[in-house]
Amino acid sequence: MLRNMNWRSRIERTPAVLGGEPVVRGTRVPVRVLVGGLAGGMTPEQVSASYRVTLEDVRAALQYAAELLAEERVLGAMPRG
Q1: CB-CB contact of 23 with 17 (8 Å)
Q2: Domain range summary for the chain, segments of one domain joined by +
C-alpha cells in the first residue's frame, strides 16, 4: 500500500520538457514509462535501476497516476439492454 507521500515534490509538468508530459523532476523520464514498467511486471527496484531514478521517484509516479485516475470518470462498456 502506498504511504501518504507528496508526489508534487518529485513529479513536474513543464511545456519545455516532453511537451508538458508529467516527468520525474529534473529528468526527461515520463511517469507513463515508470508506471508502464510496473504494469509490465518489473519490480520497483528494476524500474528504478533501468531508468536511473530513485525508488521514491517510482512511488511518486505511481501515486501521481493513482490520484489522476481517482479524479477521472470511469469509462467502460455501456450496459446492454
Answers
A1: yes
A2: 7-69
Model pLDDT, residue 69: 87
d(CA 71, CA 64): 11
- Quick: pLDDT tens for 18-63: 999 999 999 999 999 999 999 999 999 999 999 999 999 999 999 9
Phi, psi (degrees; rounded to nearest 5) at 4: -75, 95
Compute φ and ψ for 30, nearest 5 degrees: -70, 145
Q: What is the CATH topology of the domain spanning 7-69? A: Arc Repressor Mutant, subunit A (1.10.10)
Angle, to 10 degrees, between the axis of helix 55-71 and the axis of helix 44-51? Answer: 110
59: alpha, beta or left? (left if phi > 0; alpha if psi -120 to 50) = alpha
**Grid cell in block for residue 24:** 520525474
